[in-house]
Amino acid sequence: MSRYIDANCKLCRRERQKLFLKGTKCYTEKCPIEKRSYPPGQHGQSRRTKISEYGVQLREKQKVRKMYGLGEQQFRNYFERALKQTGRTGETLVKLLERRLDNVVYRLGLAPSRKTARQLVLHRHVTVNGTPVDIPSYLLNAGDVVQIRESSRKLLLIHESMKRVKDTTMLPWLSLDKANLSGTFLQVPERADVPLAANEQLIVELYSK
Question: Is the domain of 140 the same as that of 161?
Answer without folding.
Answer: yes
